[in-house]
Design a protein that fits this description.
- With about 250 residues, the chain is an alpha/beta fold.
- It has helices at about 45-50, 55-60, 95-110, 130-140, 155-170, 190-205, and strands at about 15-20, 30-35, 70-75, 80, 115-120, 145-150, 180.
- Strand 5 (about 115-120), helix 4 and strand 6 (about 145-150) form a beta-alpha-beta unit.
- Helix 1 runs antiparallel to helix 2 (about 55-60).
- The radius of gyration is 17 Å and the shape is globular.
- About 35% of the residues are buried.
- Bound molecules: guanosine-5'-diphosphate.
């Protein structure tokens, strides 16, 4: 697998903040990798598996924080962004709409967002809400990969059938399918591959525009450049994603 040589090591994971909207997000100095899926998809377990037990899961499952955009600074060089799940039933309608809007704004407008890990349950047949969400990501040129969770749960054949059914549903949107990963929080399947995605993306950021570690003295304001030409996920530009076949029309507001 191409990512083997650039697996990112996680030496520290520090909770930065919980943001209710785009304006409350931290500065754009670090590349960000966001994780999202329906509630119960296995996101907390996956984040634990990726980053080690502890702070991530504690913050992300604390009541009141599950609907906020949670930022963690990883190894002082990148941010892990834990996005609220879509399709959650809890909370007043108005509130969930507000948070959906915040997530949509984050996904569409965050310039230092490098890649979204869209989580899907490998134990389920394609779910309409997941398909809609992936369509939305595609239509809005958000760089993403698909992560099928809980592969240890059923039989491998069931998981593969569900993955094949999902990819068959979305295949028509792309010249080339997005990357697909199989993960299990129980067996740690997929851990190196996901960390490889992050490592490879960080490696692909041109050196001269690489963000300074968070500990460095802040630059005087006039010297602050837009951090880097983000939106990079293995060379994919946000504006023109060569994998996407056609512009999907009829935007559905999230
Ligand atoms: P979240 O709501 O997306 O954060 O999902 P959780 O991480 O809380 O997981 C939801 C349920 O699925 C819990 O009962 C987990 O124990 C279970 N689960 C999550 N990941 C896995 C996995 O990789 N394998 C198995 N067998 N169960 C999992």
């Amino acid at each position: 697998m191409a990512h083997w040589f650039s697996i990112v090591n996680i030496s520290s994971a520090i909770f930065d903040r919980s943001a209710p909207d785009l304006d409350s997000c931290p500065d754009e100095s670090l590349p960000e990798f966001a994780f999202i899926g329906r509630s119960n998809v296995g996101k907390s377990s996956l984040l634990n598996m990726l980053a080690g037990k502890g702070i991530l899961a504690r913050v992300s499952t604390t009541p009141g924080f599950t609907k906020l955009i949670n930022f963690f600074t990883m190894s002082k060089t990148w941010r892990l962004v834990d996005l609220p799940g879509y399709g959650f039933a809890a909370g007043a309608k108005q509130e969930s709409a507000r948070f959906n809007k915040a997530v949509a704004r984050y996904l569409k407008h965050r310039p230092n967002l490098c890649c979204v890990f869209a989580l899907l349950d490998s134990g389920l047949v394609p779910q309409e809400i997941d398909l809609e969400f992936v369509e939305w990501l595609t239509r809005n040129s958000v760089p993403f990969v698909l992560v099928f969770t809980k592969t240890d749960r059923g039989t491998p054949e069931e998981a593969e059938a569900n993955i094949a059914a999902f990819t068959a549903r979305i295949a028509g949107w792309f010249e080339q399918l997005p990357e697909i990963f199989r993960c299990s929080a129980t067996t740690a399947q997929g851990r190196s591959e996901l960390l490889g995605v992050i490592g490879a993306t960080l490696d692909a950021i041109p050196k001269e525009t690489k963000p300074t570690p968070a500990t460095a003295a802040p630059l005087p304001l006039e010297e602050v450049e837009p951090p880097f030409s983000m939106k990079v996920r293995a060379g994919i530009q946000r504006e023109e994603n060569p994998r996407v076949k056609k512009k999907l029309k009829g935007a559905r507001p999230w």
